[in-house]
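Encode chain A's predicted structure.
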Amino acid sequence: MTESGTIRDLVARIAAVAPGAEATAELDGERLTFGGLAARVNSWCDRIPAGARRVAVHCANDNDNVARICAVWQSGASAVLLGALLPAAEAQRRVVESCSDAVLGRDDIAAELAPGDSPAEPDEILVVCSPLAPPVVLRARY
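Encoded structure for chain A:
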């Protein structure tokens, strides 16, 4: 599923050798070790539909945000980041505009495409900003 040595499997690789090392910390003091982060990543991975290629991800300022993004990468999909303060209508517009075929972390919106129907390409980064501008697709190896 992932190529060894890329960011896609970074959390799992570190958790294997240093599970007790601190991975993330929230402003309120909640901390996650790499072992804990790897467990959350796997839990979020289980919620990504099989075959999803471009996943819209709810991005809050918390440890689960890191886990959700890493889960998308670990699954082999591309992530479309949805700001935590986006109203549902704007978040839904971005899901549709980006041709996302799955949504992670927000129950109030849904993908309109079936998993696997997104035109996503390997190792892409998609930026969806304003209703006035089309999405920008960048290529990067991660």
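The chain has a mean pLDDT of 85.
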